[in-house]
Sequence to fold (473 residues):
Amino acid sequence: MSMVKVKGIKKSFGTLQVLKGIDFEIKSGEVVCIIGPSGSGKSTMLRCLNRLERITDGEIYIEDELMEYRKNDTDVKKISAAKLQNLCCDLGMVFQNFNLFPHLTVLDNLTIAPVIVRKEKETVVKKRAVDLLERVGLADKRDEYPVRLSGGQQQRVAIARALAMNPKIMLFDEPTSALDPELVGEVLSTMKKLANEGMTMIIVTHEIGFAREVADRVIFMDDGVICEEGTPEEVIINPQQERTKSFLNKIL
Amino acid sequence: MLTQTQMWAVFDGTIVTLKIALVAIVFGTLGGILVALGRLSKNKVANSASWFYIWFFRGTPMLLQLFMFYYAIPIVYLEITGSSFAMNAMICAFITYSLNSAAYMAEIIRAAIESIDHGQMEAAKALGMSYHQAMIRIIIPQTYKRLVAPVGNELIILLKDTSLVSTIALFDLLRTVKTMASATGDWVYYLYAAAIYLFLTTILQVLFDKTEVRLGVYEKR
Fold:
């Protein structure tokens, strides 16, 4: 079954076209890393998947269900709000700047959405949240406010917060770019664990080593299009396209 | 020293001052929230109505607004209906100060909401929250601490600005002591008024300082 499928998606901000027609499909359990120079549209593409940005043209399917079908910045097909919310809840997202809710304790950061969005019982959610904090190694921080955590700890809480909604797909938008170098490892290893547990993951990253090790597939984007894709072996070790080669040369 | 009669007069004046300030604080805040929501709304009518409201009440002197409600409205009413009515000075003060304060509060509230990092709304939306859920549970609670200092400012200014009501025949604190001072030629009465104003604003200031610390608990590293 395909978890995510996009067809011909385009996105413009005013006259600036950021995505110029992108197609791909991601299967259940697949871990896909998206790499490419800044301004290539990787983050925008990811943000389009959960409608933080609305695409201008194209189709997006989540678990074979149509979530978005637009042409010339208008809906071709209207999707009911309830269905949209359901599909959106299947996508968890982790941001570059963590975006934890600073006024809530770590535990409340995890429980708020399941309780008010999924209408789950607080006691049930709390138990799951404690388990999740255990999994990311932060059980002892449950009553702290985010400001008292390091960047790496905040990002692990953010991962746990997204997982608390029981998503089927996790989106990572440069999850380690805002971290001090010594804190990158703990976040990457949390993500690796998640990948090994079979989570479907789409990761925009500059960590080429991580992509090589963990990704089933690597997509290289440049200038709003997919330039090259394949196994880490194919794209990172033996890139065929000139643009891929020159990008990798610059950062490796 | 004040005689007992004078003391009661000063007390009554203080009550007038406090009454107007309290009514304006309550209705100004409620009105301010409404107008701020209008300013933040994508609805064009609500948005421009709020814009004009703020434009008018911030853009004209408070004193002029008092005169307008006190003198002009009865005249306009007479022109239109042919019957006259006398404006109650106290009610007129309540209305003017509430409307005026709402304009300032609206801008304070709007600015506080817009100062919250955009990533907060995105994170809330990514977790499936609706715009309203995100506003009520995530964005607005984060504005409380940021509201304290500017709201404290506004309320202290409001309390002191109530002294303008002496122009519409109300005996507030300042007018009461002024009458005593001109009757006796002794300026010391003004000092009593200053002490009372300071006492009242001190209460506000201490209250707001404490509140700010309490609300900022989650920002302490």
Remarks:
- The mean pLDDT of chain A is 94.
- Chain A touches chain B at residues 50-52, 85, 88-89, 91-93, 95, 97, 99-104, 112-113, 116-118, 145-148, 161-162, 165 (CB under 8 Å).
- The first strand of chain A starts at residue 2 and ends at 13.
- Residues 181-196 of chain A form the longest helix (16 residues).
